[in-house]
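Q: what does this look like with NAP bound?
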Amino acid sequence: MKGLIVDSNKCFALKENLTRPVAELDEVLVKVKSASVNPFDEESAAGRFDAYFAEYKVDKEVQSGLEFSGIVESDGQKFKRGDKVFGYVNMITGWKSHAEYLAINENQMALMPNNLTFPQAAAIPLGSLTTLVALQDVGRLKAGMKLLIIGAAGGLGIQGIQIGKLLGGHVTAIAGNSQTEFLRPYGADIVHDYNQVSIKDISDTFDLILDLSNAQNLEDMKKRLTPKGMFIPAEPTQENGGESEDPQVGYLMVMEGNFEKLSRIANWVSEGKLRAVIDKEFHFSDYLQAFSRLKEKGRRGRIILNW
Ligand SMILES: NC(=O)c1ccc[n+]([C@@H]2O[C@H](COP(=O)([O-])OP(=O)(O)OC[C@H]3O[C@@H](n4cnc5c(N)ncnc54)[C@H](OP(=O)(O)O)[C@@H]3O)[C@@H](O)[C@H]2O)c1
């Protein structure tokens, strides 16, 4: 099996002859067709999750790739051989998707919407599931509420705008240069360029603020909340309040896919209510270019690797 590994210099390398995973109880084997590249992958290569891998005794060769689309190779309880699926592997314990095959618990994926290609389907699960949990379950966004999404053009943000609108929110988006016209068709009611408008210049208050940029501080965010409003940082820490008991800060941690929620997301996609956004596609053999692109500013949606 081919796949990306992290070599002794903490760099990615494409290897052949890796061990193909074997599906265990409640798992199926999936032949991966496409997978996304996202900030987790570089952090994983740099060793950020090594302590967790050690704690859970995870010693899999492939350590990157959270989202995927592909074809089921073995019959399971929910899925059968030949089904086209998309999903999000467990961030720590799962077989990762930067490989030709992965084994995955059937509860962590769903049937692919039939109006998407494999690359498009791989661009959806992590961003849509995480923002659905953030906005619906953590933030309790209701119709008519005012939502601010900071970092709105990235892999999570572009899904968050669309899901915010599907849940009935009024969406203000903050993104980089020249994203204004790009983001409007996805439903953003107001778009600010973070190079021109500082968060301190925005006089509006919001019922919910989702910060996907990890560049904001708690004090500034609280000033922009309505009295019952909530701030949700993408990466919860003590400093941004995400790991504190502060009732105005929501804790967000989505570690793996969820069959019911991904099926709901697939329905939205099938009905044309939610769209996949691909920044750039690369063949797996061009993984170095894909990771270079990840370092650039101004991306729109997800970077995709295809076999
Ligand atoms: N808690 C959870 O369960 C969970 C799950 C998944 C992901 N995450 C986290 O969510 C975050 C977003 O993930 P992603 O995949 O969407 O990343 P991404 O694609 O890199 O998007 C991040 C966005 O933030 C923007 N940004 C950077 N600095 C900014 C600033 N000062 N003001 C406004 N926007 C700014 C970037 O725009 P430019 O290109 O212009 O810089 C980019 O569009 C990551 O930190 C990830 O680790 C959390």
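The radius of gyration is 19 Å. The mean pLDDT is 96.
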